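Batch job 17 of 40 flagged for manual review because the log was empty.
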Amino acid sequence: MKLSDFQTKDVVNIIDGSRLGQIMDFEIDLQQGKIRAIILPKYAKRFGIFGSGEEVLIAWQNIVKVGKDVILVRLEQPIPPYDQRNEYPAI
């Protein structure tokens, strides 16, 4: 499967059934050649179509299932965006 195939699927949180959006980017560990996290836009709640400029990172191990149309994730608390971290998390 190509990375671009992931970006066309909706991401759904199995904890509360909420639709989180579609993947806009990936966080990749270049030394190991592995995806560390998927990155989703965090939308403003007022209208739902205007992005707030923030991102939600979901660690790769929190992906439960990749289906034909959706990606199911277990998201209890998102990882903060890279530029807002004090140190790189142990994922």
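Reviewer: the log was empty due to a logging misconfiguration, but the result itself is present. The longest strand covers residues 34-43. Unflagging and moving on to job 18.
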